[in-house]
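ARCHIVE CARD
SHELF: 3
SLOT: left
DATA:
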Amino acid sequence: MDVAQIFSNFIDHWFHTTESFMDAGGPVLWWLASVAAIMWCLMIERFLYVNITFPKERQRWVAAWRHRSHCCSWSSIAIRDGWLFQAQLKLNQRLMLIKGLITICPMLGLLGTVTGMIAVFDVMANQGNSDVRSMAGGIAMATFPTLGGMVIALTGLFAHSRLVKACLRRELSLEKELRTMR
């Protein structure tokens, strides 16, 4: 077996395992995965902006401020405050949307719990308490979305709080640098 064959087998196994897990969790788990994918795409975009794009914009603002001849005039202070406001807007862009998506995840998990328990009660009503195998599918459909919603929300909260702190640090650093010049 070559490396490509091993990698292909690994991908096939991973895909089959993931698909089995998602099917056991029901349709709510697919919705939850969609929300998580959107949330993480937005979060990755924000991390890239904060660490790659914003430093370039920061250098541009600092260079423009250094080239000003009068830094204490009313117009200069207004321009500096405008740049600081613009930096704040750009840094905090989409953070509330990300926070909203994080908040939705546990709620979707609870929706999965309710739909899974409805499936369990349906089995109990139709077949009685003796069909344990049929009830297990409903219990899995009830627990997997709850677990997924909590895991996604906790990891999202951690990443979001780190992102908010990084944005605040960069904003304060820019403000300090623009205020201490001259």
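SLOT: right
DATA:
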Amino acid sequence: MKGHPGSGKSTAARAIAAALRCPLLDKDDVRDCTLGLETVAASGVLSDLSYAVLWRVAERQVQLGLSVVIDSPLSRRAHLDALTRLPGALVVIVECHPGDKEEWRRRLEKRGAAVANGGSGDGWHKPKTWEELQRLVEGYQGCTDYEIGDVPRIVVDTTDPEVDAEAIAAKVVGFIRSHLSCRQ
């Protein structure tokens, strides 16, 4: 999965993993577990640790012959490079691109309000307002728009009111199967 926070990655990832009947590995699940370390380590270190754990778990699943869906922003080329180095893995990027910015904003701020109002603690590190998201994206300084080379990619509009998560999953599964048949 690839996309900015609140873009619908997790919703789409859950539907895709269910459709493929394979494990879902979520970077935020790992990152959420680092809350207790926030006082002793820099945020960047904890994010790097989260990715290192995620890649190791993905590698083990691939070694076992399993497919996995990885829910992560995939915001830097180094993250994609780490995935493409996994022996035996066919990497396919599902990029979540919300076409309706107002709907994207509404969803992001709804999630942020839930966390701020005593949610489970999950997502403490995620932007809670549109302004926080804009600062985060500006901080990326364009590094999220990198060249992906020959890695297959499908872009989905996660705010299209005519297309729900299951329809996105069906589209993505068809895309993945078409690339699998080309490899065999």
